[in-house]
Amino acid sequence: MKRIIKHIVLIALIASLVAWVKLARVAVAGAEARTGPLAVEVMGTGTLEARVKTTISPRIQEHLDEVLVDQGDAVKEGQLLARLNDSDIQAQIEVATAALIAAQAGVERVKSDEARALAVEKNARVNHQRVSELLAKRMVSQESMDKAVEQLHIAEADVAQSRAAIAEAESQAVTARKTLLYQQQRLSYTRVISPYDGLVVRRDRDPGGVVVPGGSLMLLAATNELWVSAWVNETASAGLKVGQPARVVFRSDEANTVTGEVARLGRETDRETREFLVDVRVRALPPNWTVGQRADVFIETGRAESALAVPQAFIQWRDGQPGVFVNEGGVARWRGVTLGLHGREKAEIAKGVAAGEQIVRPAAAKQAALTDGQRIKVK
């Protein structure tokens, strides 16, 4: 009898446990299907960059006398940024100036020699003509004629020599003038000026050392156009185009979102990450922005002003088909749905759920999946 009683009690306990399991309500999280605007966004992560950045460097090798701006300074186009030592070049300009003056004086001298040679040549030509006429009348000898011809040839040679000397002197004057211009140009290189309005992002050199062409004095960034160069997965490329609106969230100020738009699309995909660059122009910047700081961009590729949407975390897939669990009087019921637009956090339900219905999912991440007909309790 005792053995029978024990079996009856055990059976009753098992039956009670099975009934409790079947009738127990599983804790679930719930969300209401609501109608409202829905934006489809593509996310990317990148850095703030200036569209135009320039490494400011000298064009000649010289001692650096002075740097007039520092990191973080705003500069204007044509503003003097740095000054190189110009004492050697000034001395060379003085030498070149003296050489030009001497060359110009040489031109004047040989021109005066030409004038004298022309006068002698004219006189020789007149004398030659007169002797020729007298020889025709047999009033002078052939010897006088030969002498007149010789004098004319000498005079013509002197004129040619004078003209050659003028050409040479003028060439020397041109060389001296170009040498002076070259030294004056080099003098202008001792003044390093800003090519545009911008911001000194980095200062690399201090006065006292020798700088060489190509060596960085500072990094200058144009502030007229700044954008976030973001890496976006290549699968989103078909829906992207220039001019699309975007949201930008800087890692240094995650509580605030600034607006922007797509300015440029990259045309090369990274072969390792399968991502490509999208440049998003920013309309506002954080108070203490820095070139290279991290930011997340959310590019709007589609929008519906009135869409029935649910959180994407509530959508589940069975045999490749999407569906949701709907709370029907405390019981989870599976429904297959037709999806529309996919936003970053929500998805549009085109068919299968009505506005106002509550959809559910397991409350805990490690909780077992729901089953159709399971009793639930919404937390």
State the main characteristics.
3 helices; 6-stranded antiparallel barrel; OB fold (Dihydrolipoamide Acetyltransferase, E2P); 4 domains; conserved putative lor/sdh protein from methanococcus maripaludis s2 fold; 22 strands; 379 residues
Describe the structure.
It is a single chain. The chain is α+β, with helices and mostly antiparallel strands. It folds into four domains: 23-40 and 305-378, conserved putative lor/sdh protein from methanococcus maripaludis s2 fold (Beta Barrel), CATH 2.40.420; 42-51 and 222-302, Efflux pump adaptor protein, beta barrel domain (Elongation Factor Tu (Ef-tu), domain 3, Beta Barrel); 57-85 and 191-218, Beta Barrel (OB fold (Dihydrolipoamide Acetyltransferase, E2P)); 91-188. The model has no long low-confidence stretch (mean pLDDT 89). The protein has three helices and 22 strands. The longest helix has 50 residues, at 87-136. It has a six-stranded antiparallel β-barrel with strand order 2-11-14-13-12-15. Strands 1-21-17-18-22 form a five-stranded mixed β-barrel. A four-stranded antiparallel beta sheet has the order 3-10-8-5, with no helix packed on it.
